[in-house]
Amino acid sequence: MIHSVTVKSFNPQVEEEVTVSISGVEVTSYMPYGISFEPVEDKLYPVSIRFIVLDDLDMQEAQGTNIGFHRIENSFAYHVVGMFDYSKKTIDIGVEFELDEEVIDDLAWFDGKTVQILVDRIHIEFLDS
Hints:
This protein is mainly β.
C-alpha cells in the first residue's frame, strides 16, 4: 500500500531513522534499505510502509485507548490502535495500513473491532516519485 508522507527529520546518530508525518501523525520509522536520493524536510514523498513484528503478533481489543500510533519510549516500537478489517487485512487509524496475512491468519474474531497491536518497527521505503 502506497502512502504519502512529509519528512519531518532525520536522526544524525542513526542513519536509517526518519521521522515522517502521515496524515498529520508523526511516526519515527526505520529505512532498512537506505535511500537512493536525498529527501528534503517538509516535502511530500510516496512511500511503502510495513509493520515489522519479530515474534507472534500481539493483538488485543483496545478499550479507552486513542486511535493512532503510540511510541514505546525512545524505540522504534509502537502500539498501533485502530479498527481491524480481517477481510481487507488492514488496521485503520484514519489511514489504512496492510497487515501481513500470515500474522493475522487466526485473528478473525477481532474483525470490526478497535484493536491494539504491538509492532517492533515500522519500515519505510521511499519510492521513486
